[in-house]
């Protein structure tokens, strides 16, 4: 496998030249959002300077060019996910909107007493949209527990299915623990009960190859901004047979076939679910981000991140009082931790003074924090541009912080 030329790749990310409090920035908040390479920003800039025109409406050249760019991204995403057809690729504002779309539209046919299976490690984005269904009917969440490593209890999962189960909604990779869940196995089990599965891929797509046909998932969702792409764009993959049956999520322009004051007929897939002007500039730039990532090679990125994870985790273990949350085998490059009784916020603040950007708090996973018996953690997460030298500086900083706070 190719080794990454990280020094060269870092030059693609001008933000990495920044200093914070006079120290070189060490950006370890990649789980929240990754940084953006120049080529993606260049695409945005070029469109604003040369091609910006609304999609799907105009006969004029620029509108047609812009439409072609948007639809080329749809095809690029289809290839990336190995989906069968571009009509199964719907652009949204992000993972959150994609899950809300599915919950709202699928939930339309739910009745009182129906159940949705989620896991203890879901992001709020994969909890709250399902809970909102309870405004109109009684929908209960059934929760898959995990062990102390952060590995889901599949026995318990199997026992949660009953005649009321309507959906399984599971994260591919935990944004707190880094656990890579056995989604393929979970999907096969759900399908034995004729239950569809939504996989939240927000933390997966930048770190591993995803094949929706191999997984056989019914829905797969992710955000562009976590995979070196622009903000404001997300993707919903859905199996055509389900998307065809589902009612639209929002109404407006672009998603209709015919409108009168009495009645509206809807556009074909995927446009039925794309009401209003999409972020066509962002969508075009997502194409550049996918090309960038795949040009480097997702397996090479994963190997590099895994090396950093192992290198850093081993050295963190030597720090007195270090508690790491999430030790599942094969985990993704996310390290959640606390140092003794030191508050996560204090640790994060001190690290920031040393130029190191980490995330602190509950990471939009309060039920998981509750299960762990804590209020929050400090979270460091790696991307393709992080280095062992940065890991060394991070470890040295943690030692200083540990000495100060304990
Ligand atoms: N799910 C997971 C696992 C996430 O990590 C995130 C982002 N932190 C989301 C969903 C929500 O993504 P977005 O805010 O881009 O919609």
Give structural notes.
The mean pLDDT is 97. Strands 4-10-9-8-7-5-6 form a seven-stranded mixed β-sheet, sandwiched between helices. It starts with 5 loop residues before the first helix and ends with a helix. It folds into two domains: 6-29 and 298-405, Aspartate Aminotransferase, domain 1 (Alpha-Beta Complex); 53-294, Aspartate Aminotransferase, domain 2 (3-Layer(aba) Sandwich). The chain has 14 helices and 17 strands. 38% of the residues lie in helices and 17% in strands. The protein is of the alpha/beta class and 406 residues long. Residues 94-96, 123, 125-126, 171, 175, 200, 202-203, 223, 364 line the site of 4'-deoxy-4'-aminopyridoxal-5'-phosphate.
Task: Provide a compact summary of the structure.
This protein has 2 domains: 6-29 and 298-405, Aspartate Aminotransferase, domain 1; 53-294, Aspartate Aminotransferase, domain 2 (3-Layer(aba) Sandwich). Helix content is 38%, strand content 17%.
State the secondary-structure class: alpha/beta
Q: Please tell me the total number of domains.
A: 2
Round the mean pLDDT to the nearest integer and report it.
97
* CA-based shape: globular
Query: If classified by CATH, what would the architecture of the largest domain be?
Result: 3-Layer(aba) Sandwich
Strand content: 15-25%
Please count the beta strands (DSSP E, at least 2 residues each).
Answer: 17
Q: How many distinct helices? A: 14
Say which molecules are bound, naming each kind only once.
4'-deoxy-4'-aminopyridoxal-5'-phosphate
- CATH H-level homologous superfamily name of the largest domain: Type I PLP-dependent aspartate aminotransferase-like (Major domain)
* Low-pLDDT windows of residues: none
Largest beta sheet, briefly?
7 strands, mixed
Per CATH, the class of the largest domain reads Alpha Beta
CATH topology of the largest domain: Aspartate Aminotransferase, domain 2
């Amino acid at each position: 496998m190719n080794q990454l030329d990280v020094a060269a790749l870092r030059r693609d990310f001008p933000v990495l030249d920044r200093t914070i409090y006079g120290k070189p920035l060490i950006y370890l908040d990649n789980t929240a959002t990754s940084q953006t390479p120049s080529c993606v920003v260049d695409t945005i800039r070029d469109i604003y300077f040369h091609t910006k025109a609304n999609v799907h409406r105009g006969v004029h050249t620029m509108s047609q060019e812009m439409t072609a760019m948007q639809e080329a991204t749809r095809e690029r995403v289809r290839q990336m996910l190995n989906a069968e057809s571009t009509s199964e690729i719907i652009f949204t504002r992000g993972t959150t909107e994609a899950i809300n779309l599915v919950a709202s539209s699928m939930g339309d046919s739910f009745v009182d007493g129906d159940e949705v299976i989620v896991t203890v490690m879901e992001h709020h984005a994969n909890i709250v949209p399902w809970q909102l269904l309870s405004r109109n009917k009684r929908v209960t969440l059934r929760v898959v527990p995990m062990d102390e490593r952060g590995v889901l209890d599949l026995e318990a999962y199997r026992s949660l299915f009953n005649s009321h189960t309507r959906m399984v909604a599971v994260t591919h990779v935990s944004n707190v623990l880094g656990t890579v869940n056995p989604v393929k196995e979970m999907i096969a089990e759900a399908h034995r009960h004729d239950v569809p599965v939504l996989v939240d891929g927000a933390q997966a797509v930048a770190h591993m190859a995803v094949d929706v046909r191999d997984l056989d998932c019914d829905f797969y969702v992710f955000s562009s901004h976590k995979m070196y792409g622009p903000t404001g764009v997300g993707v919903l993959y859905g199996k055509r047979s389900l998307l065809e049956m589902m009612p639209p999520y929002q109404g407006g322009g672009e998603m209709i076939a015919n409108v009168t004051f009495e009645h509206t007929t809807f556009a074909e897939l995927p446009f039925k679910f794309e009401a209003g002007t999409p972020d066509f500039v962002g969508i075009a730039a997502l194409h550049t981000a996918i090309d960038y990532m795949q040009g480097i090679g997702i397996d090479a990125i994963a190997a590099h991140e895994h090396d950093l994870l192992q290198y850093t985790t081993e050295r963190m273990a030597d720090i007195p009082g270090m508690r790491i949350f999430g030790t599942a085998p094969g985990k993704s490059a996310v390290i959640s931790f606390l140092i003794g009784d030191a508050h996560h916020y204090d640790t994060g603040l001190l690290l920031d003074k040393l130029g190191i950007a980490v995330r602190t708090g509950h990471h939009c996973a309060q039920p998981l924090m509750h299960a762990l018996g804590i209020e929050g953690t400090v979270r460091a997460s790696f991307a393709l541009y992080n280095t062992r030298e940065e890991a060394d500086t991070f470890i040295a900083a943690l030692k200083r912080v540990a000495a100060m706070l304990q």
